[in-house]
Specification:
Number of strands: 0
Oligomer: single chain
Strand content: under 5%
Shape: elongated
Number of helices: 5
Distance between the termini: 43 Å
Order of helices and strands: HHHHH
Helix content: over 70%
Amino acid sequence: MVQALAVLVPNVLLVIGMLAVMFAVDPVFAMLALVVAPLMVWSIYHSTHEMKRASRQARAKDGEVAGIAAESLAAIQVVQAFSLEKKTNAAFVHSTDESLAANLDAIRHQARLGPLVDVAGVVARAIVIAVGAQRVLDGRMTVG
């Protein structure tokens, strides 16, 4: 908790300070920079929700694999006595395939989040630069 707060508090104060300076210098630019924020917040919320769901499903599938392995090994004599090796192996393979698919789905959701946030940041910067460049060209603002 202390480590999390040691990182969180300074970063929150930094963001608040940056927003205050941005609005003090030019409220229009500040609003333009923040225009992408609702989209970013929604996409992060949606992505984390999907990642949690996929991760829960992956953990459940991993548990099924562990369960099948434990049951098979505990009852190895029964499996061999009734020649159930192929059936047990097929169940294990099916379970591991489902586990793999669930884990790949979770990783896919995690991999999408970073580029999504990056694109939103780039779009916000592009909007600010385009408006700033237009203001400089119109003479309403200097380059400095």
